[in-house]
Amino acid sequence: MTTASSADHPTRRDFLFVATGAAAAVGGAAALWPFISQMNPDASTIAAGAPIEVDLSPVAEGQDIKVFWRGKPIYISHRTKKQIDEARAVPVASLPDPQPDDARVKAGHEQWLVVIGICTHLGCIPIAHEGNYDGFFCPCHGSQYDSSGRIRQGPAPANLPVPPYNFVSDTKIQIG
Amino acid sequence: MSGPSDFQPSNPALQWIERRLPIMGLVHSSFVVYPTPRNLNYWWTFGAILSFMLGMQILTGVILAMHYTPHADLAFKSVELIVRDVNYGWLLRNMHACGASMFFFAVYVHMLRGLYYGSYKEPREVLWILGVIIYLLMMATGFMGYVLPWGQMSFWGATVITNLFSAIPYFGESIVTLLWGGYSVGNPTLNRFFSLHYLLPFVIAGVVVLHVWALHVAGQNNPDGVEPKTEKDTVPFTPHATIKDGFGVACFLLLYAWFIFYMPNYLGDADNYIPANPGVTPPHIVPEWYYLPFYAILRSIPNKLAGVIGMFSAIIVLVFLPWLDSAKTRSSKYRPLAKQFFWIFVAVCILLGYLGAQPPEGIYVIAGRVLTVCYFAYFLIVLPLLSRIETPRPVPNSISEAILAKSGKAAASIAVALVAASALFLGSLQDARAEEGGPKPPANKWSFAGPFGTYDRAALQRGLKVYKEVCSNCHGLSYIAFRNLAEAGGPGYSVAQAAAFASDYKIKDGPNDQGDMFERAGRPADYFPSPFPNEQAARAANGGAAPPDLSLITKARSYGRGFPWFIFDFFTQYQEQGPDYVSAVLQGFEDKVPEGVTIPEGSYYNKYFPGHAIKMPKPLSDGQVTYDDGSPATVAQYAKDVTTFLMWTAEPHMEARKRLGFQVFIFLIIFAFLMYFTKKKVWADSH
């Protein structure tokens, strides 16, 4: 050893080692980025997730339809007056995931419930118009949702999420 | 790998593990305290480079497999989607494709190093044979990987190479059927090649472990070919060899990055950008450069079975090398005659590589036969003979003595290295289509040429107009989506403009709830619709020749550059054969067929089209498309604009590639310098 390196007397050798090590670390970290970034959705997948339009005119009262958006099933329920009243009569505070019904539908379009049909427990698809609450029943582990898509019973922790959507006209919605 | 280690970790938890599985001791004894000869030169760094490249290929390959679809109908498109849509997909694909070439370049240097310094001699025969096995596995892996993109050269390469096995007497046909899994190369073949291409690199990695194990049992050879005798002859592997190899890898990365970012298609064949077509064989089937010498040997022998045997023998002969060359002196440094013959042998291999890329006609055939004889003579006649008649120079008593007597031969060996390195690129592809094509397309000035090239936005927009108003009547653009028009590095439209452009198109969609297909306005996610519903309709409407899809046309067309231009191209980064050819063909129509030339009925004379008879009538004439930016409405301008546009459709991420390349180069140059000085410091006490 020509130069004894020590902590309180950094030598040229120490500086060179640290600089080289730092450059290697920075280069390695930068090189890692593309290898991780490639796993994110690619441009065609993102483009395929564009908003969709759904025509509601053929959906009769009491009927539910299922459409797909971004690979997820979206339930669109044309609720009956009974279903709306049931959903509104429940004291919100008593719910596992408290949310009033009018926060889950669009004002003036109360008869339309639009929810992502994926059980918030472990991702199964609940069956529409099933269960004790006039809503959805998930056969996997027995979660039950009401006519507003709110969790009422079973292991699921949260209400069925409402996707972003808006009414283009009275009989047409755009999801996304 | 080199006996029991006395390594004792200080941490009690690590001690607990080490007592039960002495893995840290193994690493410590193999890669830290392992004594490495102190006189190794930089030819020895290629072992580390190869380890690095194998890791790189496995890493990028596993990632590409996450996005690739191994199906005959989808493979080609899935590769294009990787390059176009996956984040950094173009980078990963270039890394893998150029990485294969770099891997073979490094393995050839590594093998020639072993050949020159007698690394195959006692006691390293098993080490050498394991190396030959690795090389064979590499060739199999490389070949199968080349089939996966399912382009023309993939398909026909697979056809030709699998057909080699039909030369086997009696069983040949059954073996070929077995390999194909069908009556010809097809989807089952592609599927199994994908499976094996994924598997074999891990087998290679396994044999590499054995190779390194055998190396550590026998110890490394060295340039003087004398075994280390005392402590003075060796240095500990870490830090000495690790930092030296680190510097070697950093320098190698510069070459690798040169290809990835600036010459990604230099080593490839334009034909592989044409989707596989079982009905049309490319005029010249050429393997990748690293197989060319063996391909030349195969073609030199006029008998099918003998040719196949000759080609495989050219590799298998390496196994017997330790016994063919029985000279006691290991290193050619001390064997004046062997040294000369070695360099002649290198020249023979390079020339065979050159011939492998030439059409098998005339003088090339004769030269091929002479060189094939030379290749085998080196192993079977020259080396056995030399071991009996050559008088070697005296070898030094020890490594440390050799170092003390060292003279300034470094410059000479660096010069030789550079010559050998540049000569190895002789194998770069030369398709002889130029000979049939008549005059070479004139070189244009393209804004996208060179290391800092960018697309001319105005030209892209004008080119899009020309495509839409003229070309799109017959030619599809299937890989381009309307959303691409608004992407960075493209024509520079806004998202709203791209959406508006898309809505002018009618896109077939369906089936709807009634089960009917219907037409709707285009959306940004839609792709440019094709003018014909299918290939048959396109063919029927165009006199029997289907107009090719234009998405990749500027990459799928090329012309032979010829010797020595393709060597200069490596340095000048000339990559514009495709665009030059496309714009030349658009302008190469002549109403009057020259004297003495006849062209078939229903075709047109074109100066630059191979064979001169093109089915496409003159597509462009002056004033045909109205430009609103005041550019001249001439055929020359149209050709230039539409070719620029088609260059962008072939490589939408070119600007990102060159930009990132510049940043990577700046970093690598700084890093290589840092590594160099660090290496000097580490070795300062050892010289």
Automatic annotation (TrEMBL), chain A:
<dbReference type="GO" id="GO:0008121">
    <property type="term" value="F:quinol-cytochrome-c reductase activity"/>
</dbReference>
<keyword id="KW-0001">2Fe-2S</keyword>
<dbReference type="Pfam" id="PF00355">
    <property type="entry name" value="Rieske"/>
</dbReference>
<keyword id="KW-0479">Metal-binding</keyword>
<keyword id="KW-0812">Transmembrane</keyword>
<keyword id="KW-1278">Translocase</keyword>
<dbReference type="GO" id="GO:0005886">
    <property type="term" value="C:plasma membrane"/>
</dbReference>
<comment type="function">
    <text>Component of the ubiquinol-cytochrome c reductase complex (complex III or cytochrome b-c1 complex), which is a respiratory chain that generates an electrochemical potential coupled to ATP synthesis.</text>
</comment>
<dbReference type="Pfam" id="PF10399">
    <property type="entry name" value="UCR_Fe-S_N"/>
</dbReference>
<keyword id="KW-0249">Electron transport</keyword>
<dbReference type="GO" id="GO:0046872">
    <property type="term" value="F:metal ion binding"/>
</dbReference>
<dbReference type="InterPro" id="IPR014349">
    <property type="entry name" value="Rieske_Fe-S_prot"/>
</dbReference>
<dbReference type="InterPro" id="IPR006311">
    <property type="entry name" value="TAT_signal"/>
</dbReference>
<comment type="similarity">
    <text>Belongs to the Rieske iron-sulfur protein family.</text>
</comment>
<keyword id="KW-0813">Transport</keyword>
<dbReference type="InterPro" id="IPR019470">
    <property type="entry name" value="Ubiq_cytC_Rdtase_Fe-S_su_TAT"/>
</dbReference>
<dbReference type="InterPro" id="IPR036922">
    <property type="entry name" value="Rieske_2Fe-2S_sf"/>
</dbReference>
<dbReference type="InterPro" id="IPR017941">
    <property type="entry name" value="Rieske_2Fe-2S"/>
</dbReference>
<comment type="subunit">
    <text>The main subunits of complex b-c1 are: cytochrome b, cytochrome c1 and the Rieske protein.</text>
</comment>
<dbReference type="InterPro" id="IPR019546">
    <property type="entry name" value="TAT_signal_bac_arc"/>
</dbReference>
<keyword id="KW-0411">Iron-sulfur</keyword>
<keyword id="KW-1003">Cell membrane</keyword>
From TrEMBL, chain B:
<dbReference type="GO" id="GO:0016491">
    <property type="term" value="F:oxidoreductase activity"/>
</dbReference>
<keyword id="KW-0249">Electron transport</keyword>
<feature type="binding site" description="covalent">
    <location>
        <position position="471"/>
    </location>
    <ligand>
        <name>heme c</name>
    </ligand>
</feature>
<dbReference type="GO" id="GO:0046872">
    <property type="term" value="F:metal ion binding"/>
</dbReference>
<feature type="transmembrane region" description="Helical">
    <location>
        <begin position="195"/>
        <end position="215"/>
    </location>
</feature>
<keyword id="KW-0812">Transmembrane</keyword>
<feature type="domain" description="Cytochrome b/b6 C-terminal region profile">
    <location>
        <begin position="227"/>
        <end position="397"/>
    </location>
</feature>
<dbReference type="GO" id="GO:0022904">
    <property type="term" value="P:respiratory electron transport chain"/>
</dbReference>
<feature type="transmembrane region" description="Helical">
    <location>
        <begin position="90"/>
        <end position="111"/>
    </location>
</feature>
<dbReference type="InterPro" id="IPR036909">
    <property type="entry name" value="Cyt_c-like_dom_sf"/>
</dbReference>
<feature type="transmembrane region" description="Helical">
    <location>
        <begin position="160"/>
        <end position="183"/>
    </location>
</feature>
<dbReference type="GO" id="GO:0008121">
    <property type="term" value="F:quinol-cytochrome-c reductase activity"/>
</dbReference>
<feature type="transmembrane region" description="Helical">
    <location>
        <begin position="363"/>
        <end position="386"/>
    </location>
</feature>
<dbReference type="InterPro" id="IPR009056">
    <property type="entry name" value="Cyt_c-like_dom"/>
</dbReference>
<keyword id="KW-0349">Heme</keyword>
<comment type="similarity">
    <text>Belongs to the cytochrome b family.</text>
</comment>
<feature type="transmembrane region" description="Helical">
    <location>
        <begin position="336"/>
        <end position="357"/>
    </location>
</feature>
<dbReference type="Pfam" id="PF02167">
    <property type="entry name" value="Cytochrom_C1"/>
</dbReference>
<feature type="transmembrane region" description="Helical">
    <location>
        <begin position="246"/>
        <end position="263"/>
    </location>
</feature>
<keyword id="KW-1133">Transmembrane helix</keyword>
<feature type="transmembrane region" description="Helical">
    <location>
        <begin position="42"/>
        <end position="69"/>
    </location>
</feature>
<feature type="transmembrane region" description="Helical">
    <location>
        <begin position="660"/>
        <end position="678"/>
    </location>
</feature>
